Amino acid sequence: LAGGMGSRLGDLTKVVPKPLVDICGKPISLHLVDYLQKFKIRNFIFAVGYKKEQFHKFFKELFHQSTDVEYSSNYPNGFSRKNLYEDTNFRIIDTGLHNQTGSRIAQVFDLINEDIILCTYGDGLANININSLIKAHYKNKTSITITAVTTPARFGGIVIKEDKIINFSEKMPVRENWINGGFMIINRDFKEKYLNKDAECVLEQSPLEMAARNNDLGVYKHNDFWQCMDTPRDYKYLENLLRTKKSFDFF
Predict the structure, then answer these.
(1) pTM of the entire predicted model
(2) CB neighbours of 163 closer than 8 A, spacing ≥ 6?
(3) Which residues is 146 bridged to in the sheet?
C-alpha cells in the first residue's frame, strides 16, 4: 500500500511519497522488498496514488543503477555483471489520489489472477517470518490474517482469543495493546465479502471490524522487531538504527 500522502512526516513527503523516503540512501519500501525477497517473493505491486509519477521515475532508474559492476584494466569503464533486481517484477498500479486502503486492495484484486496476496504498508519494517505467517493463515481458516504487534498506547488495539481477533478498534487503546502491524494474508473472498472500490472504503474500519464479528479475522502474533515510519521521530529512529547496524538483515 503506497498511495497515501504521509502528511505527518512533514517536509520529508513534500517531494517524494512516504514509501520512497530514503533511510540511509535507500527508500524504506525497497528495504522492505529486500527483506521479502529472502522468502522467494519476486512479484511486487505498488498500489500508488500520491505523487505516482515518482514511483515510475524511481523504478526506471533502479534498473539502471542497481547493478553489480566490475572495473579492471580490461574493463576500465566498467562491466555490468548482474542487476540486483533482475529476477524481481514491480508493477505500479494507480489506485487513486484520495482512495483509502480498502479501495486500493479491491482494485489490486480486480487486476490480478491470484486468489491470495501478501499485503502490507509501504512504510513499515519488521523481521516477520513470512513462511510462518502463511502457515498460520491456512491454520486459521479465515479470509484474512493480520500480523499483530505490540507498541506504545498511542495506537488503537485488537483483542485476541485463541488465534482469532474478536474485537478490532483503530482508535480505542486496549489493555494488551496488540495492534495491526500490516503483513496481511488476504484471500479474494475477503475482497468479495468486505471490500469495494469506492474511494471511502477503509480496510481498518468496517471491513476488519465486520470480519472480527464474523470470526473471519485471523491473527499471527509477532513479538520481535517491528517499526513503522509515521512521524519524523520514527524516521530518525530507523535511520539511526540502520546506521548503527548497517543492514536490516540482522533482524
Answers:
(1) 0.84
(2) 136, 139, 140, 218, 219
(3) 219
